[in-house]
């Protein structure tokens, strides 16, 4: 029996008590096709709707423990959306104010949801990391100027990966009964990949860890050649891909990487919807494409685990909008 079913039959303590212990879902069609067990960790079932609830909770708890975040305080973050949504829920549940800086390029659904949750949202023009106007840098400066405020700093605050090391990784290990040959994930902050891979490699050093990187991100080249450098093209995916190696990703033992184009991941999102019954966002498409590639590399009989990061409902205006896709040659 999955731990989710066990936990859903007991009582969770508030919003934060319902974070984690997500089901591990076998994808029957893709498993049949590859001859491997393709398993997706259903992170879209977290109460805030994404894998980022775990990082948000780990960061808030670490700031509370260190005394940096005190009652009535403010949590400030620069986020592509999901971390902000997790933080906004947690702040409501814990009595903190939440201030979110988000690049204007992110989906309107996520911005609307953040405002509905009561977060103070500042949408800023998209700017590269080296630019002082970059959303992460703006968030850091805003927090420094406020009283009793912390900057969550999900990219470089290693409480993020520690949360996955303590929860997501051990859950995958327990749910597979220790039979996990490979773990595959795209990274935004790197927290999920770093934390899960460390937990799995500690238990079984032979577990293969693969990065699934969207085109245009610099991390595929980092894993392959040791130097972050963008690959050709760009991607419509949100929340994943990076131009730099974050503190969370640093030191992670990654065996290999796949570069996944939108032309590969977008059809996978639709296959997951129509053939597997799962309505998911674009990063889940990249992750499952990566899991299939890992299965093909390892050959039949292996168990490959990946992350189903968030639900499709956050992407109606883009990924699930035919005209929007057609404009980008992806319909
Ligand atoms: N998928 C989605 C939809 C996300 O929002 C994020 C986080 N930005 C990720 C994947 C990547 O997770 P992580 O930050 O742990 O690398």
Automatic annotation (TrEMBL):
Pfam families noted in UniProt: PALP (PF00291)
Limits of the Tryptophan synthase beta chain-like PALP domain: 18-310
Known pathway: Amino-acid biosynthesis; L-cysteine biosynthesis; L-cysteine from L-serine: step 2/2
Top-rank lineage group of the source organism: Bacteria
UniProt EC number: 2.5.1.47
Membrane-traversing stretches: none
NCBIfam families: PRK10717.1
Protein name: cysteine synthase
Species this protein is from: Halorhodospira halophila (strain DSM 244 / SL1)
């Amino acid at each position: 029996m999955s731990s989710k079913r066990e936990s859903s039959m007991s009582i969770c303590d508030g919003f934060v008590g319902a974070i984690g212990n997500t089901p591990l879902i076998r994808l029957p069609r893709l498993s049949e096709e590859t001859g491997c067990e393709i398993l997706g960790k259903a992170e879209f079932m977290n109460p805030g709707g994404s894998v980022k609830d775990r990082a948000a909770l780990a960061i808030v708890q670490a700031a509370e423990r260190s005394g940096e975040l005190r009652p009535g305080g403010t949590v400030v973050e620069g986020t592509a959306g999901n971390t902000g949504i997790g933080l906004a829920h947690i702040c409501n549940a814990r009595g903190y104010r939440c201030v979110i800086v988000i690049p204007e390029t992110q989906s309107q659904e996520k911005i609307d949801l953040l405002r509905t949750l009561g977060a103070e949202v500042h949408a800023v023009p998209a700017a590269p990391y080296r630019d002082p106007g970059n959303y992460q840098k703006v968030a850091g400066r805003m927090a420094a100027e406020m009283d009793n405020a912390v900057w969550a700093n999900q990219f470089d605050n290693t409480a993020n990966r520690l949360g996955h090391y303590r929860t997501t990784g051990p859950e995958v290990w327990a749910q597979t009964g220790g039979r996990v040959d490979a773990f595959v994930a795209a990274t935004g902050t790197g927290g999920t990949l770093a934390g899960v891979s460390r937990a799995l490699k500690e238990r079984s050093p032979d577990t293969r860890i693969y990065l699934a990187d969207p085109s245009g991100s610099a991390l595929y080249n980092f894993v392959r050649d040791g130097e972050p450098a963008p690959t050709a093209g760009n991607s419509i995916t949100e929340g994943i891909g990076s131009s730099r190696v974050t503190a969370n990703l640093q030191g992670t033992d990654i065996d290999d990487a796949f570069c996944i184009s939108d032309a590969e991941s977008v059809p996978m999102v639709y296959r997951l919807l129509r053939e597997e019954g799962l309505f998911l966002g674009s990063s889940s498409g990249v992750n499952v494409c990566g899991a299939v590639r890992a299965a093909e590399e390892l050959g039949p009989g292996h168990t490959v685990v990946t992350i189903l990061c968030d639900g499709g409902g956050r992407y109606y205006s883009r990924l699930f909008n035919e005209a929007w896709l057609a404009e980008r040659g992806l319909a």
